[in-house]
Amino acid sequence: MTAGPRRIVLIVDDDIDFSESLGRLLALENYSVLRADSMASAKKIVQQHPVAVALVDIRLGSGNDGLDVVRELRRINPDLMCLMITAFVSVETAVQALQAGAYDYLSKPFHSEDMLSTLDRCVERIQLLDAQKLNDVRLRQKQQMEALGQLASGIAHDFNNILAVLLSNLRLLEERIGTAQPAVTELVTEAIGATHTGSELTSRLLNFGSRPEDEDQVVDLAAMLPDFAMMLRRTLGKEWSVRLDLPDQLYMLVFSRGLLETSLLNLALNARDAMATGGTITIKARNHHVGPVSATEQTRPIIGEFVAISVIDTGTGMSDHVRTRAFDPLFTTKKRGDGNGLGLTMVDNFVRTHGGWMEIDSTLGQGTTMTLLLPGRFQIGPDGANI
């Protein structure tokens, strides 16, 4: 069994024999141990490793003061739990240690049981603080989503009125043209379909965060994606090419087709914006099995059959900072007026409320792959067998 990130301990002591002996003891208790003998080496370790607890000797050689070491380490990592080790037990020493930011102190020589008990309390406190931070983050996200829901509902109501006018005029145009001009009729039909998709989107906005089951239908990606790619080519312009990468067999999906198309369109427009002078957008779909091992690796309790739909661009890519914040409400890298930071939030919300998740694979200068992983349904063959 390997030590987790919350069981990484740093020993800061210039007594090599004591440090090694203490390190061996902690290793037997499933702690991962790092050692330093000065402030400089301790700072370097804390900057490079996710240290949870630091055991710091109050008296270090080479002019290093253990209290100063604790202050500096906690400046680098305010969440670091520090235990002061001292052979000079006094009320003044204890007060100084606590004022420096130490959680507790141990007096030499100490019993291993006392030291391990104190470390266990540190780990428990870290876990409680982690849980509290997670709850705080979830509360803020909930409040943000509620505020966004109110904003989105107001926008959707006004936008619905505009769509009603567009749809009425397109229907009239369709009747006037009839079958006399097939090419124009096809364009009008696509425009009417896009208007219906927009209407479904506004309905979704009016119920932001909910999952309207009555909109779900069986979606055959093998039939849907070629039509979607054709519409996308006309929408993006000649500087951007669109290619499909589909296997012979794909699981069926049970979703709102309009919301799925809207989500893919959002990703495609983001991909276009990442390729300002043109490029290639690839839409790739694959059946994807998530077994117990891969589910554990992804730290999500999802096991079963999924369809992975990827939108791949050859654009500028994302930095680590942008990638980690990509799904945050109102976060955008676009200039004012070009984006509101809601697009990816809504796509992520749509995927999660339907039992899936999203993944981002991106490197600066090497493009981005945005993947929707959605629960798949087996296709039923004419003999009643799963295909």
From TrEMBL:
Domain Response regulatory: 8-123
Entry annotated with the keyword ATP-binding: yes
Superkingdom of origin: Bacteria
Pfam families: HATPase_c (PF02518), Response_reg (PF00072)
Lineage of the species this protein comes from: Bacteria, Pseudomonadati, Pseudomonadota, Alphaproteobacteria, Rhodobacterales
Catalyzed chemical reaction(s): ATP + protein L-histidine = ADP + protein N-phospho-L-histidine
Cited PROSITE patterns: HIS_KIN, RESPONSE_REGULATORY
Protein's name in the database: histidine kinase
CDD domains assigned: HisKA
Keywords: ATP-binding, Kinase, Nucleotide-binding, Phosphoprotein, Transferase, Two-component regulatory system
Molecular function as annotated in GO: ATP binding; phosphorelay sensor kinase activity
Residue ranges annotated for the Histidine kinase domain, each copy included: 154-378
Modification sites for 4-aspartylphosphate: 57
